[in-house]
Amino acid sequence: MSTGNDAVRPRTVNPLSAIALAIVATLGALYIVSQFLRNSVGVIAPNLASEMGLSPIELGFLSSIYFFVFAATQIPLGVALDRFGPKLCMLVCVGFTVLGCALFAAAQASGSLVIARALLGFGTASFLMAPCALYARWFPPERFSTLTGIQLGLGSLGALLATAPLAFATAWVGWRATFLGIGSSAALIGVVVWLIVEDDPPGAAIRPHRETLKESLAGVWGVIRTPSMGRVFFVQIAIYPSYLLVTGLWGGPYLTHVYGYDLTGRGDILFLSALAQVLGSFLWGPADRWFGSCKVPVLISLFLLLGSLVLFAAASPMPYPLLVGAFVLIGFSTGPLALVLTHGRSLAAPHLLGRTITLLNIGAMGGGFLVQFISGAIIGLFPVEAGTYPLEAYRLVFTLQAALVLAGIIIYFGSRNSILGQKSVLH
After folding, report:
1. Torsion-angle region of residue 140: left (phi > 0), alpha (psi -120 to 50) or beta?
2. Backbone CA torsion sign across 180, 182, 186, 188
3. Contact assessment for residue 398 and residue 250, using Cβ atoms and an 8 Å cutoff
4. Is the CB of residue 117 less than 8 Å from the CB of residue 179?
5. In sequence order, what are the beta bridge partners of 418?
6. Which of 50, 149, 186, 297 is the most exposed place for a label (fewest CB within 10 A)?
7. Where are the domains positioned within the chain?
């Protein structure tokens, strides 16, 4: 692989070439599986709670353990991406994903569900980071944010599938058969990855040098010590976990307990939220070129996100148009993850790419674990009547998340900015 001392510039590929389009489509399909699995608990949460007798804290832990394992995997994954290449990492992870889907479908107790979710967190850990590493190797640097945005947008179709389509499938064949189908799809996509994906583009100069383990770990520390990386890391904790908290977990129970929606009704509204994130991922992706920086559009999205959480915290219960608008705004405002990764990538040395993006992903997924687990514990403190959590519990959870986003705005505002690929400071 290439290192920071390499004199040879790798060859890049036209993003519109046939092989490039085939690879982007395949990697996008793989990320669809990841997004479906991470968001699937939100719609079927009441079904799981009823069938398995799960308490609020157990439900929160079941959903959040995925993100804990996912986040814990990121640092070794970053080292593996830079040492062994993205393709091998993805193929190994596909195997664990198929195993996790099978175990989840066969689970008869909460413990088996938790183990299955943990396997799924490990298995899907590379399905965004490995494609990002491939895009950095295959395509010109100025296309990284756009291609990452496309990856996120395509993958977010999985979040769409985890809303109304999952509700329909659950009502039709049950959630167990649905997870078996997703596992089979993951296996098929893995075969396609094995057949057509390569770590480097055709004709690229391959350097024989491979870092030692000591050098790899030193690189992790180098990323951590990079100026402003901590600020970019914190904003990761604020943005995507907000979507995971609302659309990915408590949005379904909230719509049922506060507004009385059934499985189909809550699936329809969560579908709109997920659709807004898909569109947001595509629209925010190239925004660094529109604004001349990553920082400005990320700050805009943070303020939109703060406004949506304030609506959930202060205006509930809301009239239907405002309710749908709040869910749509949550989805749209949490779409600029490509910009955050691009910002972080611009701060660190090129040969630390894998470790940089995986470190940042710890913020997103580790934050998802924390907000889901803690929110489950908070809701569990309130009295439950006939299996229904009170509105006050949801309001408190949304208020605390709004406070986290506000802290993210304040911290991120002082970060070093990347203007058209060059480092500078914007205050």
Report:
1. beta
2. positive
3. no
4. no
5. 423
6. 50
7. 18-201+213-425
Closest by Cα among 137, 140, 196 to 357? 137
**What CATH code is assigned to 18-201+213-425?**
1.20.1250.20
The residues facing 229 across adjacent strands are: none
Contacts of 241 (CB under 8 A, 6+ apart): 364, 367, 368, 370, 371, 372, 401, 404
256: its two tokens: 């049922």
Upstream peptide bond of 76 is cis (omega within 30 degrees of 0): no
CA dihedral 334→336→342→347, nearest 10 degrees, is -50
Sign of torsion, CA 153 159 161 165? negative
pLDDT in tens, the chain (427 residues): 334 444 344 556 555 567 778 888 899 899 999 988 887 877 787 778 878 887 878 887 888 888 889 888 888 887 888 778 889 999 999 999 999 999 999 988 888 899 999 999 999 999 988 888 888 777 777 677 777 777 877 877 787 787 778 878 888 888 889 999 999 999 999 999 999 888 777 666 554 456 666 766 677 788 888 888 989 999 999 998 999 899 878 888 899 999 988 878 888 898 899 889 888 877 877 777 788 788 899 999 999 999 999 999 998 889 999 999 999 999 999 888 878 888 887 888 777 777 787 788 888 878 888 888 899 889 888 887 877 889 999 999 999 999 999 999 999 998 887 544 443 333 2
Among 126, 148, 127, CA closest to 139:
148
Spatial distance between the Cα atoms of 392 and 413, rounded to a whole number of angstroms: 32
Crossing angle of helices 86-106 and 18-39, in 10° steps, is 30
Distance CA 341, CA 144 (A): 9
∠ CA 235-61-407, rounded to 5°: 20
- Calpha distance 118→112 (Å, rounded): 10
Both tokens of residue 3? 């290192």
Question: 8-21 as b/e, with b when 16 or more CB fall inside 10 Å?
Answer: eebebbebeeeebe
Residue 99 vs residues 42, 57, 77, 120, 187: alpha-carbon distances, Å: 21, 25, 19, 8, 10
CB neighbours (10 Å) of residue 290? 11
